[in-house]
Amino acid sequence: MTLHPLDRRDWALAALLALLTCGLLMSTSADVGIPRDESFYLYAGDRAADWWLGLFDPSTPSFTRKAVEAGFGYNHEHPVLMKSLFGLSHRILHDQLGWISSPLLSYRLPSMVMWGLTIALTYLIGRALQSRAAGVVGALALLCLPRAYFHAHFACFDVPVTFTWVLTAFCALRALRSRRWAVASGVALGLGFATKLNTFFLPFALFFVFAYDAWRYRRETGAWRAAGEARGPLTYMAWTAGSMLLLGAVVFFAHWPWLWWDTVARLREYIAFHARHVHYPVDYLGTLWYDPPFPMHFPFVMTLTTVPVATLLLGGIGLWVLVGRTVARHKGGVDALRSTGPVEVWFWVNLAVPILVIAAPHTPIFGGIKHWLPSMPFFAVAAGLGAERALHGLLGRTVAPAWTVLAGAVLLLPAGVATARYAPMGEAYYNELVGGPAGAAELRLPRNFWGYITQGGLDALNARAEPNALAFWHDATRGSFDAYKAEGALRKDIKYTGDWTAAHSDWGLYHDQRDKHWEELDLWRAYGTDWPVDGVFVDGVQLLGLYHRPSAPTMPASLTPPWPPGRATDGGAAEAVSAPPAAEQGQGEQRE
Amino acid sequence: MITRARGDGAASVIVSAAVNSRVYWLALPLLVALAFVMGHVQSARVATRDDWARATDAVRSQRTPTDALLWAPLSQGEGRLYFDGLNAQHAELPTADLARWDTLWVLGSHGRGAADLVWPHRIVETQTFGPLTVEKVRVEGERVVGDLLTDLERVRVSRAFAVGGEVRVCGFWSGRGWHCALRDSPERTRECLAAPTGQRLARRDKDPECGLDPLLHVSRDVRLIGDVPRRCLWVHPVANARVTLEWFDAPAGSALQLDYGFSDPMVADNYKRDRKVRAAHIRVTRTGRALLDFEVTPVKGWRSERVDLPPEAGPLTIEVSSDDPRDAHLCIDPTLRGPRQGEGSGP
Question: How far is A378 from chain B (nearest CA, A)?
Answer without folding.
Answer: 21
